[in-house]
Amino acid sequence: MENKISVVNIIVEDAKNVDKINSLLHEFSKYIIGRLGIPYSKKDVCVICAVMDAPATEVSSLLGKLGMLSGVTVKTITAKV
């Protein structure tokens, strides 16, 4: 299966899940090109963006695992090329 570039956007509203999120990102680290995490204490959230070069099945797997965590919202954008 062909790799595509995807941006996984994560908003964390429940800080108790940060360790689980980091563990999942580490599990998929061979596909992650770069990552940016921004804690925003004014709104008590954390925003994480991870850029991946991966097969769609791997991106979907990560999204599914992240989506099962409470207080975590995940959206992705995938390049058409």
What does this structure look like?
With 81 residues, the chain is of the alpha+beta class. The chain has helices at 18-27, 56-67, and strands spanning 3-12, 32-40, 45-55, 72-78. A 4-stranded antiparallel beta sheet has the order 2-3-1-4, with helices on one face. The longest helix is centred in the C-terminal third of the chain and has 12 residues, at 56-67. It starts with a strand and ends with a strand. The mean pLDDT is 96.
What layout of secondary structure does this protein have?
Blueprint (H helix, E strand, L loop, with lengths): L2 E10 L5 H10 L4 E9 L4 E11 H12 L4 E7 L3
Antiparallel strand pairs: 1-3, 1-4, 2-3
What is the overall silhouette? globular
H/E element sequence: EHEEHE
Mean pLDDT: 96
Radius of gyration, taken over Cα atoms and rounded to an integer in Å? 12 Å
Beta fraction: over 45%
Q: Biggest sheet, in brief?
A: 4 strands, antiparallel
In helices, the fraction of residues equals 25-40%
Q: How many DSSP-defined strands?
A: 4
Structural class: alpha+beta
- Low-confidence stretches are none
Q: Give, in spatial order, the strands making up the sheet with the most strands.
A: 2-3-1-4
Number of helices: 2
Which properties best describe this structure?
4 strands, about 45% strand, 4-stranded antiparallel sheet, about 80 residues, globular, single chain, alpha+beta
